[in-house]
Amino acid sequence: DAKTTQPPSMDCAEGRAANLPCNHSTISGNEYVYWYRQIHSQGPQYIIHGLKNNETNEMASLIITEDRKSSTLILPHATLRDTAVYYCIVRVTGGGNKLTFGTGTQLKVEL
Amino acid sequence: SQTIHQWPATLVQPVGSPLSLECTVEGTSNPNLYWYRQAAGRGLQLLFYSVGIGQISSEVPQNLSASRPQDRQFILSSKKLLLSDSGFYLCAWSRSSTWGNTIYFGEGSWLTVV
Known about the structure:
heterodimer, A: mainly beta, five-stranded mixed β-sheet, four-stranded antiparallel β-sheet, 9 strands, globular, B: mainly beta, seven-stranded mixed β-sheet
């Protein structure tokens, strides 16, 4: 399984863009990059995923480098409600479609 | 639309007592189902997953077991709880194909073993 490396914590001012990096240098060609977040005491929430192209949805944008060894999740206008632990996950192949979570990045959005 | 429900939301159980956490998914058929656990201050750990009725795969040896008696029902059990079983338990589901399917989580169940 490809492993991911994320900074343990980041701060962001409300209204500014939050850019959360993730390294996955051992990713395989058929593995997706997924992002989830977990607000304290709640179940993880799906944000976005991609294979090699950049992706955007109503929550965030995902930028994947051309060599696919790293990616960045962008929250364009962070709010206090975006304070959460953000997990970057590379998809395990086969085996019932599993996800393996690391320790993630604690994002704190402040006034 | 699809929904996932798990219960109870919180419970406090004495050491040595049995456990049963239930999870059901609505609005889809033949989903893949998962049980995760999150100990205090730790990341999520996959405990079990199932690709069909009666098909259970265990990721880590432990004091827990899982069963899937119906297509959209997943149960986490223990015969005798240990203090180390305390944690936040999450049920999750995904559509049943190999690639690119998102996993969706329930709201979780807080278990405190005393």
